[in-house]
Design a protein that fits this description.
single chain; 240 residues; alpha/beta; Metallo-beta-lactamase, Chain A; five-stranded mixed sheet; 7 helices; disordered N terminus; binds zinc ion
Length: 240
C-alpha cells in the first residue's frame, strides 16, 4: 500500500479496511454503502442498505471476523430513505442471534419517520418493498456525540436531501473522516426533489461541511471522497 490507505481503487463486494477503525462495504444494486466503525467491544453500523442483499454482507463480515468480540452495536441511519434503512430489522435480528446487543440511532426527524413508518418519505415502494417500522433508541440532534468504545462521532444535521439527513464526523487524533449519507458524493450531491428535500437547505449544509477538516469522506453511494475541500468547492460551484 502506498500513501493511499485504501490501496487500490475499491471493487464492489470487497470490504475496504480503512485503518484503524472503519470498514467500508460498497452497496450492491440499490443498496447504500454500509460502514462499520469498531473499537473494542463496541461497534457502529452506518446505514443498512435495502436488506435485500444482507446475506452477502453478513457472509463477508463473518469470514473477515469483523465482529468478533463485539458485544454492543449502534445502528445509525444517515437518513430515512429505504435504500439506507430497509435492512435495519434484518441486521438487528442477525446481530442479536450472534449475542450482540443492538440499539438504533438517528437524527430525531429521521427517527420520527422510521417510528411512524412513513412510506411517503421512506419510499420503500420504489423498491417493491414494505418498511417495517421500529423504535429508535437514540433520537439525536445536531452537536450530539455517539460513543463507540473510546471513539466519539459528532452528529452534524445536514438537511437538504431529506429533512433528517445527518453526517457523522470522526476525528481520532490521527484520521479525520466524514460519513455523508446522500448529502454529498464524489463529484455530485444528493437529489432534493424527493419529499422533504430542499435545495437551499442542501447548499447551507454543504457550506457548513466545507468548514471541517476531513481526510476522507464516506458517502452513502459510490466511492470515497479523497479531496474533501476540492469536491465541495466543485459541487457548490455546480449548484450556484
Ligand atoms: Zn437518500
Amino acid at each position: 500500500m502506498g500513501e493511499n490507505p485504501f490501496g487500490n481503487p475499491p471493487t464492489n463486494l470487497l470490504p475496504i479496511e480503512v485503518p484503524p477503525h472503519v470498514l467500508m462495504l460498497r452497496g450492491i444494486g440499490w443498496d447504500s454503502n454500509i460502514y462499520l466503525v469498531r473499537d473494542g467491544e463496541e461497534a457502529l453500523i452506518i446505514d443498512t442498505g435495502t436488506g435485500i442483499n444482507w446475506h452477502v454482507y453478513a457472509g463477508m463480515w463473518e469470514r473477515g471476523g469483523y465482529l468478533e468480540g463485539v458485544r454492543r452495536v449502534i445502528i445509525f441511519n444517515t437518513h430515512e430513505h429505504f435504500d439506507h434503512v430497509g435492512g435495519n430489522n434484518v441486521v438487528k435480528r442477525w446481530l442479536e442471534r450472534h449475542g450482540i446487543e443492538v440499539y438504533f440511532a438517528a437524527h430525531k426527524i429521521t427517527a420520527n419517520v422510521i417510528e411512524r413508518g412513513d412510506e411517503g418519505v421512506i419510499l420503500s415502494y420504489f423498491y417493491g418493498r414494505r418498511f417495517e417500522p421500529h423504535q429508535v433508541d437514540f433520537k439525536l440532534e445536531d452537536g450530539d456525540k455517539l460513543r463507540v468504545g473510546s471513539l466519539e462521532l459528532l452528529v452534524i444535521h445536514t438537511p437538504g436531501h431529506t429533512a433528517g439527513s445527518s453526517c457523522l464526523y470522526l476525528d481520532d487524533g490521527k484520521h479525520r473522516v466524514m460519513f455523508t449519507g446522500d448529502t454529498v458524493f464524489k463529484g455530485t450531491v444528493g437529489r432534493t426533489d424527493l419529499p422533504t428535500g430542499d435545495g437551499w437547505a442542501l447548499r447551507e449544509s454543504l457550506e457548513r461541511l466545507a468548514g471541517f477538516d476531513v481526510d476522507f469522506g464516506f458517502p452513502g453511494h459510490g466511492g470515497y471522497i479523497d479531496d474533501w475541500e476540492g469536491n465541495l468547492k466543485e459541487v457548490l460551484r455546480w449548484l450556484a
